[in-house]
Design a protein that fits this description.
31 strands, 501 residues, single chain, elongated, alpha+beta
């Protein structure tokens, strides 16, 4: 008579008898059960391992099942075993790869955390030293110009109250516009000496490329501007929340401007002073002294992300647009908002802003595809230019004061005549072409387009002179050098490239 385990219903290898119930069990099974429960599994009476009685039986040899007695059956068993081993091996490799990736990510996070902790410790030490000596940090007090004051002690969520545009400010704007209009008419009669010719532009090739200006961990340069007084100097704003001032001739970084809480989407280099302006979705605009690389003023004019800034020709006032539907006009010398206006009819956010060369009118782009022209002195909307489809991405006024170039998310560039208030030319780009930035040169002879690639058009004829495909990602900024002798562009590929002869 074969012995059968009362738990597994199989022939036990080491049978034992429970004196409590008289049942036969596999020794390892009943011991495990008794250690966990302390009772006999058949009748629930108290049982210990010491009470179990071994049964002496000859070794049991399990017969092979009928399915394993033929050669094909044996081969199938071997194949099943092999498949199981391979599947197990694949699972182990997959788990190993996942473990390696998790370890790599953990090490990267640890390294980043160590760097952040070290930087915070350094900043805390510097702040304690400054507090102990009761002295402000260098550059936040007066920078080179005594007109700038220390940074305002406002909360980050505060928006400055409007101070109003005084008669003195309006007269200053009018005097500058009169002077600029006279100079523009005088310049318009002759071609600037030394201006690059059409053949020169067609022969332009990449001269230099710089990819180390911004952080590689958060790649992408979002904005670019050149200093008009010295076009070898430029400033870029990036996804890494920093602005960088760079000299292309010496190939040296002049200053790294840190302080924004979010990416830097707009930058301006002051044409006459060593000052840079930056704007960010953190709802602030900042005025920086380049020599000290410190923030001199924080202008909080908006309750939403700042989408565009433009410097007035006087060099003293800053125009800004925002997702809060308002545009603001601010005095950069004291960091004060003079006026803030929203279109009472449109409920659309503003996406960009740009001053006309004479400074008395300016344009703003909206999310609902309309370009609005405003009178600065009256703070009124004097003209609308519909026709695009998609949010307006960039606008640029020609230096001659007659043309306005606009682009949106519709793969076209439109040219508008400001005298007749009409669209007189539409440049259709390639399908799904993105336009991120537009710029006329200082003579109004050429128009540059940055986006999917970099292109230069000849004004009046509006034909393409050159196309540059050197960037490996979308170009985000474009500017002409002095007399268009070179072209500078920035891109999401982290590079700033220079094109010339």
């Amino acid at each position: 008579m074969a012995l059968v385990c009362a738990i597994s219903n199989e022939t036990p290898e080491h049978p034992v008898i429970s004196p409590v119930s008289g049942s036969i069990y596999e020794k390892r099974l009943i011991e495990k059960y008794v250690n966990e429960n302390g009772v006999d599994p058949m009748n629930g009476e108290k049982l210990s391992v010491d009470m179990l009685i071994d049964v002496k039986t000859p070794p049991v040899v399990k017969p092979r099942p009928p399915s394993a007695t033929s050669i094909p059956a044996i081969l199938k068993c071997l194949q099943d075993e092999w498949d199981a081993v391979m599947l197990h091996s694949f699972t182990l490799r997959h788990q190993l790869q996942a473990a390696r990736q998790e370890l790599s990510h953990a090490l990267y996070q640890h390294d980043a955390a160590c760097r952040v902790i070290a930087r915070l410790n350094k900043e805390v030490t510097a702040a304690r030293e400054a507090l102990a000596t009761l002295k402000p940090q260098a550059g936040i007090a007066p920078i080179a110009q005594p007109a700038y004051g220390a940074e305002a002690p406002e909360r980050p969520d505060q928006v400055m109250e409007e101070a109003g545009m005084s008669e003195e400010v309006i007269q200053k704007l009018q005097d500058k516009a009169t002077l600029l209009t006279a100079e523009r008419k005088k310049r318009g009669k002759t071609v600037p000496e030394g201006l690059a010719t059409n053949e020169d532009i067609k022969a332009y090739r990449q001269q230099a490329s710089h990819v180390g200006l911004h952080s590689a961990s958060v790649p992408g340069i979002l904005s670019l501007d050149l200093c008009l007084r010295d076009t070898s100097k430029l400033v870029t704003g990036g996804n890494d929340k920093q602005a960088v001032v760079f000299n292309k001739d010496t190939e040296q970084v002049i200053a790294i401007l840190k302080g924004h809480q979010k990416k830097v989407t707009s930058v301006i280099y002051h044409p006459d002073e060593e000052i840079v302006f930056t704007a960010s979705p953190d709802c602030t605009m900042r005025v920086w002294g380049i020599q000290t690389a410190q923030c001199a003023q924080i202008i909080r004019a908006h309750e939403g992300p700042v989408t565009g800034i433009s410097l007035h020709a006087t060099g003293d006032f800053l125009l800004s647009s925002s997702m809060d539907r308002h545009w603001a006009f601010s005095d950069i010398r004291v960091g004060r908002v003079l006026t803030k206006v929203a279109d009472p009819i449109s409920q659309s956010a503003l996406t960009c802003a740009q001053f006309h060369p004479d400074g008395l009118i300016f344009g703003t782009g909206t999310e609902d595809s309309v370009i609005k022209i405003w009178d600065l002195k009256e703070r009124t909307n004097v003209a609308d230019f519909p026709g695009h489809s998609g949010a307006i991405s960039s606008i640029a006024f020609s230096e001659n004061g007659y043309y306005l170039a606009t682009a949106a998310d519709d793969s076209v560039v439109k040219l508008w005549d400001l005298r007749k208030l009409r669209n007189f030319k539409t440049i259709a780009m390639d399908d799904r072409y993105e336009v991120k930035s537009l710029a006329f040169d200082q003579s109004g002879t050429y128009l540059a387009v940055a986006g999917t690639d970099v292109r230069v058009y000849l004004c009046k004829q509006w034909n393409v002179l050159s196309v540059f495909n050197d960037h490996t990602a979308t170009a985000t900024g474009i500017r002409f050098g002095d007399n268009s002798t070179f072209i500078a562009s920035s891109s999401m590929d982290r590079s700033v490239k220079f094109f010339g002869l």
